[in-house]
Amino acid sequence: MTDTLAQLTAKDFTSNQEPKWCPGCGDFSVLQQLKNAMADLGLKTEEVVVVSGIGCSSRLPYYVATYGVHGIHGRALAMASGIKTSRPELSVWVGTGDGDALSIGGNHYIHTVRRNLDLNVILFNNEIYGLTKGQYSPTSKVGLKTVTSPNGVVDHPINTAALTLGAGGTFFARVMDRDGKIMREIFKRAAEHKGTSLIEIYQNCPIFNDGAFDAFSNKERKADTTIYLEQGKPLVFGKDNNKGIRLDGFKPVVVDLGSSSVSENDLWIHDEKDFIKANMLSRFFDDPDASEDFLPRPFGIFYVEDRYTYEDALTEQIAAAQENGEGTLEELLAGSSTWTIE
Question: Using CB atoms within 10 A as the burial measure, which of 74, 179, 266, 301 is most buried?
Fold first, then answer.
């Protein structure tokens, strides 16, 4: 038996189940970094619940030695909300996919985000339905040919960052599946945030949508197509850190730092607390393969806001209602408004 008084390691969070994902799947990296982060946070296995819906990502509860719930399609956030509301002292993590969370679970997604329960949501985005054999998902790119879109997807894809912030999200971050160190730190920041933390992970599906994120992960290209957000730091990118983002009024533009007329002092400084700029960052959603004049895709923590949580507000409301002592069933059924019919 593990000594619960000692600091646990990632191994202590490893279940006796062998992960069943395809070779090369990005889910393996997410699983490992989640276990690393839980150990770093000093959590105990009995303090954690991992909840999931349906999909490749939703196997997550089996592979972590904590409490877990594997639910039905699209309902992971609803179940997690119930758990957190009834047991607010638990650390609740949700593993969900772009199909599970944003299609059948889309309504739950919006309302969970706006309610701001203290949940840590890991959204595996591979822009495809992997477990059910390659149908296009709400985040699939226009033109993608799949078994359900043989002539190419015509739907405009959901922008997860914009959706989350628009729904009133208090924490949003994005990371690549192969950026393990960054992912580990973001998981820890998410857990320390009091409220709903949404971490979108660009996760490669090597079977049904291989290379979906090559523009942002290819070693030859990523320096020019991605930008990493660091609190208090200017938005600089490029192979030689020779490019930056400057605001022209309210319009972000790419500038050349090699020019004598532009320096880092002229650039946009990242501030996690700035809601307006976070919304602008969420719109850095250009396709570098389809546009020569594109903005780099941001990774890191976009936005953090301190706001009361749903479970705290509900607990306070219940306590206030109980201040006058217990009521009766008759009073409850009658309510405050009654009529006598003569």
Answer: 301
